[in-house]
Amino acid sequence: MNTFKRLTASLLVVCMTSLSVPLQANAAIISTQEAAGPAASAERDRVIDFLKRDEVRKAIEAQGVDAQAAVDRVQAMSDEEVQQLAGRIDQMPAGGDVLGILFTVFIILLVTDILGFTKIFPFTRSIR
């Protein structure tokens, strides 16, 4: 029994000593995309792929908006806006209510023009 007590005491001394050793932590700055995770970038990619479809691109250009400007604007959107737009794409029937999406993109681009963040439409004046 005396040997068991000595072994237990020795083991406890080693364990308590190892707990007092300071541990090193590493930290680094991460980008917003890394913090948001793959879900946000997947939604953004899905909306951009939708805007690059031929019928959508033609309808956007028929409204007087450059297709690349629309894609650039989607890149500049917040994650919440992209999720809302992607949700609208999911709710559309298989044939697609392209006009609803185009109207949404048009309104977003129009508002950003009026607020002075972009200059896409020549008929708007910035409030800045």
From TrEMBL:
Short name of one Pfam family for this protein?
Answer: DUF6627
Record flagged with keyword Signal: yes
Signal peptide residues are: 1-27
The organism's place on the tree of life at top rank: Bacteria
Mark the transmembrane ranges.
Answer: 98-118
Q: Which keywords does this Swiss-Prot/TrEMBL entry list?
A: Membrane, Signal, Transmembrane, Transmembrane helix
Q: Which InterPro entries match?
A: PA2779-like (IPR046735), UCP029543 (IPR016924)
The answer to keyword Transmembrane helix applying to this record is: yes
Which protein, by its recorded name, is this?
A: PA2779 family protein
Q: Which organism is it from?
A: Noviherbaspirillum aridicola
